[in-house]
Records
---
Amino acid sequence: MKINHITLLVSDKEKAINFYTKILELGSVKIVNQKHSWINFGGSYLHITDNSGTPIKDSFYHFALEVENIDDYIEKIRKNGAEVDDSNNQFFVRDPDGNLIEFIDSNNSFFK
């Protein structure tokens, strides 16, 4: 079993797509229709939608993604314009709507 997709409610779909594909460099976009977009990353999808109400801002609700070299990834996305709060094999960023994303180094022993 694995996660197929994570759905995020956003206020500006194009701005969110730019953040996830250009700044975080997660993957490629598949547009389903005017309201839904899917970003392929690591064999799963991030479902971006703007048709289900108002995004919840600045909560601790989040999803976590594993990266192989967290230091290199932090450097790359900082160059792309991301604000990174980093510490000990993990870091957090917020998308333009305040959705929280955690990144964990693949060598983090927490889940091993």
Note: The chain has a mean pLDDT of 88.
---
Amino acid sequence: MAWNEPGNGQRDPWGRNRQTGNKPGLEDMLKQIRNRLGKLGGGAGGIFTIVLALLLAWLLISSYTIVDARQAGVVLRFGQYSRTLQPGFHLKLPAPVETVTKVGTTEIRSVSDKVRMLTSDENIISVDFNVQYQVSDARKYLFSLAGPPEDTLRQAAEAAVRTVVGANVMDNILTSQGADQAATPASASTAALATASSVAAPVTPALTAAAAQTRDTLQQQTREILQATLNEYDAGLLVTDVSFQNVAPPQEVKDAFDDVNAAREDKQGTENNARAYASQVVPVARGDASRISAEAQGYAAQRVAIATGDAARFNLILKEYKAAPDVTRRRLWLETVEDVMSNNPKVLDGSGGRNMIYLPLDRATGKDVPGVGAVMQSAANDALAGKEKQP
């Protein structure tokens, strides 16, 4: 008999007797648990109890679901669509009778791609586009498309971009791209090409706004075409934004585009110089024309006024002449002689027939004052006459 088997003696190798008491040891406790489990599963009733307990736990766990506020739950009953659950706590049949697939409906997702295409003027450009979208219908998103929704969206977006780009000329597309793109080292040549293509007119805030409007129009058209295509596919997707991130000619034809753009820059420089010269010369010419016209109008008004005054004076003189012809005739003669004599130099001879020396003092002073020359000439004559009388 082994040393640790139960018995009345209960001896151990060290010759000490074990203490018996009310508290079982660890080994006894393990034996009791093992015995109870053996009794529970030993018969048919024990196995049924275990299965029933596991079944109840499984029913309890799989009979409800919680849908997040940013999600929608699609319920499948035996693999067929049953209903769509809104955010919150919901009861359902346990799996595999009903399963719930949760789809994020507020998450902003994006798809990007780069394609080459022809414009309406038969030029090749490379377009990098980005599409942002949301799931508007979780059921359609999961079951309406044969393949992954992202692949379908990418193909539909490429078709929409080709439709819009193919309906516009290259200058419009490059101008819309260059209006808001920052010139980074990697995209400096692209920005230069876009700028050179947009110099067909002077760069003004109005043209910048027009370029931005063109860009927004192209992106809006692309978004509308893409959304219409997805609606036809019944994809359950809502396009929130479409943007052209990089639009540039391919590297294979970049040199040719550089030559064309250099020629456009030279043409634009010449046109700008001509506009500057015109803006400088035309206002001066318009000012001269306005001044000459104003002077002509003033001269015409002056001549008309003088003629009117002369006619009125002549009528007054005629009236006086009819009343007293001799007096009027003599008065007119005196006035005429006065006008003639007032405008001509006069010399008074007071020498009494002796020699007279004429000194044009009025001309020497540089001033033609009526009467002054005559007075000075008379004084000079008097002085000469005084000298002649001296012995």
Note: The CA atoms of residues 160 and 226 lie 6 Å apart.
---
Amino acid sequence: MTVLDGTRPELLNNVLRIRWIMWLFLVSLHLITNFHRVSFNVVADLLTSEFNLTGAGLGNLAAAYTYTYLIMQLPGGAMVDRLGPRKIAFLSGAAMAAGSIIIGFSPNAALVFFGRLLIGFGGSVILINVFKFQASWFKPNEFATLSGLALFISSSGTLLASTPLSISVDMIGWRGSFILAGAVTVLVAITCIKVIRNRPNDPGNAPVYSTGPGLDSEPSGQDGTPLFKVLPEILRNGRLWMLFLINTGIYGGFIVFSGTWGISYLVHVYGMDLRQASFFIIPAFVGYMIGAPLYGFASDRLGSRKKPAATSFIFYCLAWGIIAAWPGLLSPVLLYAVSFFIGFGTPGNVLTFSMAREASSPGNTGLVTAMVNTGVFAGMAILQPLFGYVLDLGWEGLIIDGARIYTLEAYRLGFLICFLFGLMALVITLIYRENNLIKS
């Protein structure tokens, strides 16, 4: 029985309305995270020129965001389970705001690196925090749909980091744009601490929240059990490691294209200007936004996580295969299509979080989803500098306005690596043994 059964109608209506408002504020923080995740795509050449960066140097700056993500996933997941969504939302928002403002005032690349680390520190637990809230305020058979919907909404942050960011850079500069983003994040963080409630039945909640036991399918969590006692059971779970590797293979390539090197590829190889190139990246974000809720909804309706995820990754691999192997330049139509299907093929990985909950004991949603989520940022941390290293190997010495210009052949080798990572994820998905689910 859930609290939605047998609850007085007036209380039920309030719960339904208020939980969605709280969920939207939490998701808005993930929107800001997505903005920062891909923001370097627009400012890559500006940073390269101002701080005299190599391709590997820019890749490391971009990947700095992921380093603290990797370090913070497991301890961050434990913190989410213990502190709850309300405090985590405020602390993570404050850290991201500080990092963004620091980047805006940075006199050198080292301080930009520190700002990215701080943004990564704050953003590292935001999606896990959303999952924890969903487990407490919604039904189990709504989890995948909500997760997809959360990514659909928060992906608008990546849209903001394309053409709108390029317009902002033209108007107030890249420094002013990051300072503005930090100021907005401060407002969101303050709002979260005011309105978020961890669980329906927490002591001290207003009666509108305390509607009886059973709304959330998430038990109390670790109940004070130290992390070192909980962690070994999780780390011995082979299925969680498979989900980790799936995320390692998929998401890093999406960020390589949409967040770091896609615009540079279009500018260097196709001779586009920054504004033109940003329009060709938008289909990747649109594809992601369409795919995320679609795969989540299909998963809950079909009673399967594996089938929609595998379908998603097939699209992903086909897109990377085309851009890596196509002889010569792609036509504009094909460029748009490849961009779209790189995005559309990525968000099947959101189902790994539902699979993680179903492959582990209840009560530790934050921790198990954090472990699986670590794979996302492992892929980003590996692929972004690796892609930059491959470009440097193929560099022929051309520099324009202080920025290195790379050849089509160098980019194609980098795209091939993204394809191989995606193929690994697809194969693991196909051999994964999922639980039998009941259709919602």
Note: The chain is about 75% helix and 0% strand.
---
Amino acid sequence: MRRALELARKGWGNTAPNPMVGAAVVSGGVVVGEGWHVQYGGPHAETVALEAAGHAARGGTLYVTLEPCAHRGQTPPCTEAILASGVARVVAAVRDPTPPARGGAELLRAQGIEVQFGVEADEAIELNAPFFHAVRSTRPWVVLKLAVSIDGAIGSKTREQRWLTGEDSRREVHHMRANFDAIAVGAGTVLSDDPELTVRLVDAPRRAPLRVIFDRELRTPATAKVVRTARQVPTLIMASVVGAQLEPLRSQGVEIIPSKTHADALEKLRARSIRSVLVEGGAGLAAQLLEQKLVDRLVIFQAPLLLGDGSLAAFGGLTAARARELGNLRIVSRRNIGDDVVTTYDVSRR
């Protein structure tokens, strides 16, 4: 199953709105076929793995990271390929939560195939968190990413624009972007950093993430990169005010979406089929989203440097009560990337 999960990750950035799925066929203790869902609309992982295995699949076990589908969408049901292959057993990490696709396990069992669930289930759910979250929520899966110093700051006393993390971490951020439906920042980040919010340092995803600016007072200038390139990469501004500044933005292709609150803005994004949002700052927006319990995962890239007195604290905008609530978060993962330490925290339970 761990190998199947490894294969599933090969679909990163290319399968949405479908989940990433990997599969491995084992016979006699040997892997005889492997596959993954390469791209949205293409063959599913089970079909690819079974075709690779051929006759060797007969009597073997199919390991797959998600329950095989039982419905006909852009491809035939995976259950048909499984039944035709002659495998005796299917081990799936987790059930499919979507009504149209689920039910494959019952169909296979009715035909005499043994089906088991639960192997590496937590990792399988984490891999496709936006997919599972979309079934039960009216807002997207929100991941807040921040680069901080050892002393927990995101900017120096002078507020000069500078990289905190190394090149490997910056490449990893672009890799993260590739698998999100949208990338979001606050107006303050647009004004201070003038970011592009695009995927550049890695292979391009199947479709470019939507760019979202949380800018209630419409402070985004018409000269900003995200505005000047809005006809090439779709760009939305979530605003609570309207005025004369609308026309210069709209004339360059920016769409303005009225929203009363951050929760309202996120629900409107979800209504547009946006199921995952990567928020990249700044400190004000980060604090507001954490304060309002609108963040599911917090990803901290910590660089080995001190910014000292007067620096901009990453979580200085949190109330003391909310900061206490966020104490002792569960660590989902932690690893070194170059000289930086990257930790993912589970915020959804707080």
Note: The chain has two domains: 2-127, 140-346.
